[in-house]
Structures are given as structure tokens and as C-alpha cells.
Amino acid sequence: MGRLLTAWILNAAALAAAAWLLGEQMSIGTGADATEDRLLTLAVVAAVFTLVNQLVSPVIKFLALPFIVLTLGLALLVINALMLLLTERITDLVGVDFVIEGFWWAVAASIVISVVNAVLASLTGTRR
């Protein structure tokens, strides 16, 4: 359970950084929301994103392993972007305001999230 909690916190920080860097292209909550509401929305989005990465992503990566090898790992960018878009879809179904403006912005967000997660994991000494 500790790993899941750590992943949730690191993903929340990475999602917040991506939303901040990408501006209007990726939003978590609305500008009219109070700070507490935006933090709650971020926590919910991070929880869904963490569960998607823990449950769905390993299966997809295993099934796509030949393509990952063939593309020298570039297929992972597509997979990570699709996991982010899946998170957007799930949060939309439960009424949480999380928007990414298309596939290529999801790729950009997944790059930011991967870099931020790697830096935070190295600073905290956690393995991802």
C-alpha cells in the first residue's frame, strides 16, 4: 500500500506540473474553482491516473512489447499518452473536470509527467 500512496503523491505533483506547463491545453479543474476544489480535483485525477498506470498500463505494455522493441521505446510515448487520455475519459464519466486538448497534447503531457516523476523519484529515493 505504501508504493501505491507514493505513486499517487508523485503522480499528483507530476500532473500539476504538466497542467501548469501546458496551460490551457491541459486543465485540472477550472479557473473559477476555489483552491480546495482544485486540489480535490487534482487528488481524484491523480488517483485515477495511478490506478490506470498500475492496472491497465502493464497489460498494454506487455501486449505491445514487440512494437516497443521495434520502435526502440518510442511506442511507450504513445502508450503513456493513451493512458492519460483513458484517465481523462474515466474522470469525465465520474464528473471530474480534467481536459487534455487532443492526442499530441497528451504526448507532451506524458513527457512532462515522465520527467517530473523521474526527478521526484530520484529525489525521494523511490523506485518506479
TrEMBL record:
UniProt-listed Pfam families: Phage_holin_4_2
Keyword Iron tagged: no
Family annotation (InterPro entries): Phage_holin_4_2
Keywords: Membrane, Transmembrane, Transmembrane helix
Segments forming a coiled coil: none
Segments crossing the lipid bilayer: 39-56, 63-83, 103-123
Protein name: Phage holin family protein
